[in-house]
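Re: Re: ligand-bound prediction request (bumping)

Still looking for help on this. To restate: I need the protein modeled with 2-phosphoglycolic acid bound, output as structure tokens. Inputs repeated here so nobody has to scroll up.
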Amino acid sequence: MKSLIIANWKCNPSTLAEAKELFNKVKKTDAIICAPFIYLPGLKAKNLCAQNCFWEEKGPYTGEISPKMLKDLGVEYVIIGHSERRNCFKETDEIVNKKLKAVLNAELIPILCIGEKKGEDANQVIENQLKCDLDGISEEEQEKIIVAYEPVWAIGTGDFCEPVKAVETLKFIKSKVKNKVLYGGSVTSKISKDYIDTGFDGLLVGGASLKADEFINIIKNV
Ligand code: PGA
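Reply:
Sorry for the wait, this slipped through. Here it is.
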């Protein structure tokens, strides 16, 4: 099965011109590109992903973007519950659950991020996140979700989770849900293949996705 490679640009780059330049270098790959909201219409591509969204369709919610708006734009995927949203923006599992339901309802594919902080028990945290985040979502709907295992301590630190260790958590996740599971957290081209070889269905790449050559090498190596 083909690996899913996702580029999470986060709040980068700082101009549309730079975003287009980066996009033009990587657009021949099958990678899914998660760009900031305002760049999405300018990138006109398949495989576009938003990094977040609101749970209501429309209404008096200043500053929010709804799943329906994203669908209308041709976006296919939405990241939900990234640890930066959980931590910087205080998104709770209850919020993540509402967003997941709204995204599925709009027929977009959610990429649900889960993972433990340093010192926490990975299985315990993940079990709880999956239980709360997927609450009330039918099994059929649940299967449409892509799960990304991203240990919080590995994100943006260069301190990736060794594949031999990550695979233990992968097995635990697979024992709980039937979804595709990606790994994310300081992925580079040196290590990308090892995650796929251990059984991950793909990768969620942050920092390295901003360097076109490195990102293309990540894809080539898997
Ligand atoms: P990173 O980010 O590759 O820079 O660690 C991954 C992510 O946050 O999705």
